[in-house]
Amino acid sequence: MEILIHGAGAMGLYFAARLQQAVHRVRLVARTGWADAPRVRIATEDAEETVELAEVTDAVPEGAATDLVVLAVKAWAVPEVLRDLSTRGPAGTPFLTLQNGVTAPEHVVEAFPQAPVLASTCVVIVQRTAPGWVSLLGREAQLTVGVFSSGDAGEPEEALGLAERVFAGTPVELVPVADVQRALWKKLALIASYGGVGAVTGLTVGQTRADGGARSLVWEGIEEVRSVARAHGVEFTGEDAAEVFAVYTDGFAAGTTSSMQRDLAAGRPSELEDQTGTVVARAGQVGVDVPVHGFIYRTQSAREAIARAEA
């Protein structure tokens, strides 16, 4: 299959390598800084692999045949990418979103209503160490995928079948789900809550969960997101909330921080709007009180504005 991956950060590099190894033809769109041949070097705990891609380019190839577009950019960059794609590709090409939060697949449906849209949550630890270089820390990716919109493709099973064919032959564990909205909101509850508390305190997961006050703020943040999701008609049970909290308390290494927290601390544009900002905005739409996320958003918005002004 012909796969177009937009975004050459850690996620884009990782999926480009694994999909190319599965005998797909992968075109990777990288903004800048690519001085090497069209290849990805991926380092694991056991080996270092070099994978030759079909193409690396700084612009979406106009009119190129594409079976699947994979969006691997940060959530805040998705609208700009879609504007670029709207002038260059077939309107019905299927999409797979990898972003945190719930906004990315919504943006795709708005820009490409005819296209099947697969949304996902991804569990993997990857680090981009240089242009074209990525390190995999620990296990291969687990990708929970569901149909966000069938577009003009017909039944949802057809779109899920595409995902299964694309990832067949890769080490990526594909977990199909019928209710992808539920999966997206559960992931949002996790990352916006522990990441937001981490951003405010400047502490790692190990440090916040060892402190009773900070730990309780993470739990309260998860419960706030659950209330917002339920008010918007998304199934999000008490058991789901406990499962999300257990990932924070038992599933992360002590030194873990979220990408949003790291970006805010480093003065880079972050996913604050697509994570905490989304929780606050969607809460306002349905009259749900979210004091924890409201405080996080108000305290971090100035940092975000400064980072974007200087970017």
From TrEMBL:
Where is the Ketopantoate reductase N-terminal domain positioned along the sequence? 3-148
Q: Which reaction does it catalyse?
A: (R)-pantoate + NADP(+) = 2-dehydropantoate + NADPH + H(+)
- Which Gene3D superfamilies does the record match to this protein? N-(1-d-carboxylethyl)-l-norvaline Dehydrogenase, domain 2 (1.10.1040.10), NAD(P)-binding Rossmann-like Domain (3.40.50.720)
Q: State the source organism's domain of life.
A: Bacteria
Recite the UniProt keywords alphabetically: NADP, Oxidoreductase, Pantothenate biosynthesis
UniProt pathway annotation: Cofactor biosynthesis; (R)-pantothenate biosynthesis; (R)-pantoate from 3-methyl-2-oxobutanoate: step 2/2
Which EC numbers does the record give? 1.1.1.169
Q: What does this protein do?
A: Catalyzes the NADPH-dependent reduction of ketopantoate into pantoic acid.
Q: Which NCBIfam families match?
A: apbA_panE
Q: What is this protein called?
A: 2-dehydropantoate 2-reductase
Which organism is this protein's natural source? Rothia kristinae
